[in-house]
Amino acid sequence: MIDIKGKKITIIGAQRSGKALTELALRLEGIPRISELKPEKDIDADLVQWFRQNRLAMEFNGQTREFIEDSDIVVLSPGVSVHSAAVQWATLRNIPVLGEIEFAFQFCHKPVIAVTGSNGKTTVSTLINLVLTKAGYRSILCGNVGFPFSQFVFNLADKDFIVVEMSSFQLESLLEPQSTFRTSSHNGRWSFRGFKPHIAVMLNLSQNHLDRHKDLNEYYEAKKRIFLNQEESDFAVLNYQNSLLRSWANDIKSKAVFFGANTQTKILNENYAAVMKVADILGVSEELCQKVFDHFKGVEHRLEWVRSIKGVEYINDSKSTTAEATRWALTRMEHPVILLCGGRDKNIDFSVLKELVQKKVKSMIVFGEARTKIKNTFAEVVKIEECRSLEEAVASAQHTAQTGDCVVLSPMCASFDMFRNFEERGKRYKEIVNQLN
Question: What's the pLDDT at 188?
Fold first, then answer.
């Protein structure tokens, strides 16, 4: 375990992960500092007050080179790009740069089950945690699912496993095994353990985050880093249906096992198949998994039933921030769909859904920054209406919907043009729907 006592730990990002990292650094007698791109007025006032009460050095409204270079370690919140100026400044001074999960991993000595993929991460992570609990194991669910890993690393004495959902943002910064840094500014030497999950699950790959990654190859390579530090005693759980993932089995050190390979399986979907493969590695029975599946009500904001009004169903699928996620949702719809979509474009090709939209969607209501692009993509296959806000979109959907229809918020886009995250967007949608007469 690294010793950060008396060391300046500069945390990039003043949100939920920033607070958890600050608490971790303080407990280890380090000196946490906050550097935030957003102006102070855009950060939760109670959180800023908490930082001030702990007498942290802070900078808002952008990073400065002097502040970053006066660091022993720089730790990135999940939304911070490895291509940012702050990372470049730190790298030039040979200051170690770690992501939040990797920093927390330095203080963790329990086996980790890490889950990534373009779609289904939260569902699979949640189900793995439920299966472990049902089997009598003690586990914690954290990561991209909403709870920072760094929040839990000092509460693992009685735990058997840590289940971590990971996005490409969290994976792209992972270090090689036993990375060493010699820092001229502090005359110091750091050596870090590379993040190493005992079981790493790769669910699928499709277009995503092309607003962040320069191309699909960079996005795929970021995802592949989940296997970077695994050893022969570890496991890589891969989707057999994806030819690229099958080929990766030849490049990784860990033992590759596949789900989705048996076409005769009784499993209903790939998410369940992935969970059952992890369970099999751990010696948990298929029957126990099925009991968990039978009682699983889904995760919030993923095909979440909200209410029925005059024979019209309202579904919250705010977590669908890609075309492929919306494809998954539409294939499960059995009734005519009024589709609400839009938000901030992630440089995704929406046209891959034209055939499915023509088949499943009765009408489409678009809003947000990407509304014009979405309208131009689907105008020839479905009736489309543009709205200025989510509230206006829901009102229009209610006016249009008939008995037997299903109004589905499945945006295909990020939420950041109007909301802080997809959770806030989903909660607002549910509030609007629950206020309808």
Answer: 64
